[in-house]
């Protein structure tokens, strides 16, 4: 699944693919925004860990869990 995280006062966004489900990502984001966790911590498919302070979150875009199609459609 694709995840895109916007960070306040930063022109770039974090974009990566993760094996976590949409519900797991949404739960982690909700906990960070509710103040239950000071950090949003997610891991991508390659094992890289992304840690973002909760007050710096501008937006989090959670993509679909479908795999991408490769090739041409007639």
UniProtKB/TrEMBL annotation:
It comes from the Bacteria. InterPro entries: DUF3107 (IPR021456). This is DUF3107 domain-containing protein. It comes from Agromyces mariniharenae. The lineage of its organism: Bacteria, Bacillati, Actinomycetota, Actinomycetes, Micrococcales.
